[in-house]
């Protein structure tokens, strides 16, 4: 066990446009570098995990050791040395805090700076309960008591393992098994924290639930795991946000989100991904390899993914819907914006298994600078999915001559009553639209962001209000410098 | 793999560059092997039924007389009860080149001035141009069957049309298999060169006579060079026997202002793949690549296109329509690649498929790969069953269910057949399409 005090590499907000690039100067305790069984036992021990979970981790680790890193995505990045990473880093705390008042004020200040209020201020309209994850651990979860009144469980996954082991054991790894893919296996072996949500039967969650992920420590991989279970007739809207300091070297983030939706339940999952994208020459930035999947197990279940991807140097992410229950619905709305040397390979999978299942995919990609972006999606209709329906639309906008935009949809239909439609277009901002704006005295950069926001509107309107405003601003910031 | 790569003596083994290419083909095929489920380009079309040892390369069999006798026995009438003419004549005049079981027959027509047609092997000896074209654009490291084809490069036809020469009649390449013989394997290599301003129409027809259940393997590579301002219309009908394997690659290179139009109707074979890789190398090059397939039984039929826009102002259009019944599987993979600087380009692609039965399957992967901003590209893909309302409309007017379905299917395919600009050929294709669906009661 090493203890070290981190010195800030980059002074507060000295970076150009990435306003979350600061480092919190906080004492950290971390496990030694490298990945082996010892480290996994150590993580498991730190979290006082039961034997079954340690066993799950070790099985995942053994499986991972025989796997090869996938190369099919249109991504170029330096080989990741998995032995040169810290797999556990946590802010040092003497005792686990009983209430928000006991949390290190530096941590609270960090979240305040990020715009995430951890104090429960009832006066705020549009109350949001937050689970804040800092490096490998969850530091605070707000409004727990209020949610508990309704029987809703919202806590860090480590806590859930201790306090609700039956629920966790019943659902963990059932949507994304540890054998699923390279990064999912890695995550299953070493995941450190994340959020757990359980919405009991018939309950509509009264507020938005939110997790905020922050990578702070250097050379540390963040491996969080989120599990959401929506029982019969329930509803929850869940938000996820993330940022990381500005550093010259690349940081690894490999997360798993598993969602189980039962009869007549609905889950809405929104993400604004704003990991550090690297500087304008493509140096640094987060490698983001995420496996997100929702299983609509019950009848009439509904899952809706909305994502705004503006950050990360490399994004590898395919939020998927497994539509098992009859009449279940899957939706995917995505805006991905890449600038400078960012690369994104993202999309979705819609697996139709139940009868009368419907899915909708709206994907908007904007590439600028030297960036490259790929939409990669799968729509599969199995033989029993009578009357399945899918509509996919992928539009790409190219800004500048050096960027690339690619579309790789896979459509597999094995049922004749299924109706599948896919369309995609690629174009640049039309000169006419630009001219129209310029003629009315709007400068070029504003005009471009206006047009881009219009292009994304169809997706943005599916975000909760506060998020939508933030996302629109984020897109404008990310586009800066790409025009002219 | 012994069955596919055999030690045989091929003509032209005294030419070092030819032997060199064959050797390279052998090496690269061995290095890749047959594509598996993990080979992305063959994800949906698994080359089954090719792992056996029993293939006989055409022309290497010593007992030819036996074959003739066998075929005469079946001439005209065969076990399936259908009438097969050994040569399906085209309904319009053409320069007809015949291949019987993968062997080119003597040409019995007079060639117009400025046109050369001869067996590839003769051209290799006699025409200097061949060396600078043959195999130059084939990426054997990524096309295992093209590598295999190169390893056996010998049979095939060489067609060259000189500068500003326009052919009035189409050239028809009839590939006929006497399917009484089992396990024949043919590797045809055609080299087609259109010089600046030349114009030609080429029709490929793959048919068979004899036992419809016999198994054979045709592996075809066409290398097509279209010069500045030249125009090639290229049509193909694939109507192989039900257990045949048909794999074809057309590698097309189009230069400035060049025009390439193609249409391929696939309705036979157990496993078929018609692949076009087209490079629009220079400005204003244009390609229309259309296709249709109507399949039944246990067939897997694949249409794969890869169009590279390498220069500004180039255009491509694709329309592919399929009708799939029985336990068959239709596959479409289309890719539009736009290179950096290839601005003001247009690429469009549309794939539509009809599923007629519960066991039928459609897999489709339309792909865009774009590295330039000032482009207009789109693709669309749709699949579903026959419109119930339209069926009801016809049923309510006293048209029987089977007939109503047939009318709808015909109308469905007519859209793509109508893209053929040559009237004679268009009519021939609509006849070919109708006869088949009628028999098979789609």
Short précis:
The complex is a heterodimer of chains A (about 475) and B (about 450). Chain A has about 475 residues and is α/β, with parallel strands linked by helices.
Taking all residues together, what is the mean pLDDT of chain B? Answer: 87
Outline the low-pLDDT stretches of chain B.
62-87, 435-442
Count of strand segments of chain B:
22
Instruction: Profile the largest sheet of chain B.
Output: 10 strands, mixed
Structural class of chain A: alpha/beta
Structural class of chain B: alpha/beta
Gyration radius of chain B (Cα, Å) is 21 Å
Outline the low-pLDDT stretches of chain A. Answer: 1-15, 122-126
Strand order of the largest sheet of chain A: 5-4-8-10-12-14-17-20-22-24
Tell me the number of helical segments of chain B per DSSP (H or I, 4 or more residues long): 8
The number of helical elements of chain A comes to: 10
Q: How are the SSEs ordered, and which strands pair?
A:
The complex is a heterodimer of chains A (484) and B (442).
Chain A: E1 2-5, E2 27-30, H1 37-46, H2 51-65, E3 89-91, H3 105-113, E4 128-134, E5 137-141, H4 144-149, E6 153-156, H5 157-163, H6 165-171, H7 182-190, E7 195-199, E8 208-214, E9 225-230, E10 235-243, E11 250-261, E12 266-273, E13 285-296, E14 302-309, E15 314-317, E16 320-323, E17 329-338, E18 343-346, E19 349-352, E20 358-368, E21 372-381, E22 389-399, E23 404-413, E24 419-428, H8 431-439, H9 444-460, H10 465-479
Parallel strand pairs in A: 4-8, 7-9, 8-10, 9-11, 10-12, 11-13, 12-14, 13-15, 13-16, 14-17, 15-18, 16-19, 17-20, 18-21, 19-21, 20-22, 21-23, 22-24
Antiparallel strand pairs in A: 1-2, 2-3, 4-5, 6-7
Helix pairs in contact in A: 1-2, 2-7, 5-6, 8-9, 9-10
Chain B: H1 16-32, E1 56-57, H2 64-74, E2 76-77, E3 83-84, E4 95-100, E5 103-104, E6 115-119, H3 120-126, H4 129-133, H5 144-151, E7 157-161, E8 171-178, E9 184-194, E10 199-209, E11 216-226, E12 231-238, E13 245-254, E14 259-266, E15 271-280, E16 286-295, E17 300-309, E18 315-324, E19 329-338, E20 345-355, E21 361-370, E22 375-384, H6 388-395, H7 401-417, H8 423-440
Parallel strand pairs in B: 1-9, 4-8, 7-9, 8-10, 9-11, 10-12, 11-13, 12-14, 13-15, 14-16, 15-17, 16-18, 17-19, 18-20, 19-21, 20-22
Antiparallel strand pairs in B: 2-3, 4-5, 6-7
Helix pairs in contact in B: 1-5, 6-7, 7-8
């Amino acid at each position: 066990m090493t203890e070290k005090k981190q010195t800030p590499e980059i002074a507060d907000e000295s970076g150009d446009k990435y306003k979350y690039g600061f480092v919190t100067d906080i004492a950290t305790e971390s496990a030694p570098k490298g990945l082996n069984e010892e480290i996994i036992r150590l993580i498991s021990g730190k979290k006082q995990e039961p034997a079954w979970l340690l066993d799950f981790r070790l099985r995942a680790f053994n499986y991972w050791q025989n796997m090869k890193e996938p190369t099919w995505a249109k991504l170029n990045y330096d080989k990741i040395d998995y032995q040169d990473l810290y797999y556990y880093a946590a802010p040092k705390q003497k005792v686990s805090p009983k209430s928000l008042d006991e949390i290190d004020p530096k941590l609270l200040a960090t979240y305040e700076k990020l715009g995430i209020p951890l104090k429960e201020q009832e006066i705020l309209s549009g109350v949001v309960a937050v689970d804040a994850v800092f490096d490998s651990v969850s530091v605070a979860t707000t409004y727990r008591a209020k949610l508990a009144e309704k029987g809703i469980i919202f806590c860090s996954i480590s806590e859930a393992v201790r306090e609700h082991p039956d629920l966790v054991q019943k659902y963990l790894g059932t949507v994304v098994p540890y054998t699923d893919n390279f990064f999912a296996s890695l995550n299953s072996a070493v995941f450190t924290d994340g959020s757990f949500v359980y919405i009991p039967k018939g309950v509509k969650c009264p507020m938005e639930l939110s997790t905020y992920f922050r990578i702070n420590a250097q050379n540390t991989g963040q491996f969080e795991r989120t599990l959401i279970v929506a029982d019969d007739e329930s509803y929850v809207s869940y938000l996820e946000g993330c940022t990381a300091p500005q550093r010259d070297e690349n940081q690894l983030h490999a997360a798993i989100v598993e969602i189980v939706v039962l009869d007549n339940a609905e889950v809405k999952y929104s993400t604004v991904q704003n990991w550090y994208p690297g500087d304008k020459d493509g140096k640094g930035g987060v490698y983001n390899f995420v496996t997100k999947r929702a299983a609509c197990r019950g009848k009439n279940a509904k899952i809706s993914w909305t994502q705004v991807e503006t950050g990360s140097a490399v994004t590898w992410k395919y939020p998927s819907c497994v539509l098992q229950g009859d009449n279940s619905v899957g939706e995917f709305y995505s805006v991905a914006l890449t600038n400078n040397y960012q690369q994104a390979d993202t999309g979705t999978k819609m697996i139709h298994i139940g009868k009368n299942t419907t899915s909708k995919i709206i994907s908007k990609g904007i590439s600028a600078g030297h960036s490259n972006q790929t939409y990669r999606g799968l729509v599969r209709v199995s033989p029993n999915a009578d009357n399945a329906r899918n509509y996919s639309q992928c539009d790409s906008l190219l800004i500048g001559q050096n960027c690339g935009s690619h579309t790789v949809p896979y459509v597999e239909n094995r049922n004749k009553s299924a109706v599948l439609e896919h369309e995609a277009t690629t174009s640049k901002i039309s000169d006419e639209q630009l001219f129209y704006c310029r003629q009315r005295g709007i400068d070029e950069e504003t005009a471009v962001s206006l047009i881009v926001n219009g292009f994304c509107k169809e997706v943005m309107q599916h975000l909760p209000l506060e998020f939508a405003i933030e996302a629109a601003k984020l897109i404008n910031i990310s586009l800066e410098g790409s025009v002219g | 793999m012994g069955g596919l790569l055999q030690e045989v003596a091929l003509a032209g083994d005294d030419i070092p560059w030819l032997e060199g290419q064959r050797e390279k083909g052998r090496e690269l095929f061995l290095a890749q092997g047959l594509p598996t489920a993990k080979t992305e380009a063959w994800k949906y079309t698994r080359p089954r039924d090719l792992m056996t040892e029993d293939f006989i390369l055409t022309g290497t069999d010593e007992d030819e007389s036996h074959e003739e006798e066998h075929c005469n026995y079946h001439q005209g009438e065969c076990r399936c009860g259908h009438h097969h003419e050994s040569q399906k004549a085209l309904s319009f005049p053409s320069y007809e080149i015949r291949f019987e079981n993968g062997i080119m027959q003597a040409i019995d027509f007079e060639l117009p001035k400025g046109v050369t047609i001869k067996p590839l092997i003769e051209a290799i000896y006699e025409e200097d141009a061949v060396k600078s074209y043959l195999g130059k654009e084939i990426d054997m490291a990524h096309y295992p069957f093209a590598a295999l084809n190169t390893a056996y490069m010998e049979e095939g036809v060489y067609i060259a049309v000189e500068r500003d020469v326009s052919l009035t009649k189409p050239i028809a390449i009839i590939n006929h298999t006497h399917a009484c013989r089992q396990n024949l394997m043919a590797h045809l290599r055609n080299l087609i060169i259109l010089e600046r301003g030349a114009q030609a129409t080429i029709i490929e027809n793959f048919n068979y006579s004899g036992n419809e259940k016999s198994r054979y393997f045709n592996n075809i590579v066409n290398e097509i060079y279209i010069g500045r301002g030249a125009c090639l219309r290229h049509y193909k009908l694939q109507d192989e026997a039900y257990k045949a394997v048909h794999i074809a690659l057309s590698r097309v290179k189009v230069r400035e202002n060049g025009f390439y139009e193609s249409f391929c109707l696939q309705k036979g074979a157990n496993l078929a793949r018609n692949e076009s890789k087209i490079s629009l190398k220079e400005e204003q090059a244009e390609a229309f690549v259309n296709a249709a397939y109507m399949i039944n039984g246990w067939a897997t039929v694949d249409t794969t296109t890869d169009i590279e826009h390498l220069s500004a102002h180039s255009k491509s259009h694709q329309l592919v329509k399929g009708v799939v019944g029985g336990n068959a599987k239709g596959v479409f993979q289309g890719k539009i690649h736009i290179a950096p600087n290839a601005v003001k380009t247009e690429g469009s692609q549309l794939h539509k498929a009809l599923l007629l039965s519960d066991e039928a399957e459609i897999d489709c992967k339309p792909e865009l790969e774009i590295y330039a901003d000032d482009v207009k590209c789109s693709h669309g893909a749709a699949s579903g069953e026959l419109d119930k309302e339209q069926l009801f409309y016809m049923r309510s007017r006293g048209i029987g269910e089977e007939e109503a379905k047939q009318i709808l299917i015909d109308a469905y395919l007519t859209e793509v057949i109508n893209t053929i600009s040559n009237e004679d050929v268009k009519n021939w294709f609509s006849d070919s399409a109708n006869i088949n669906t009628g028999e098979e009661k789609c």
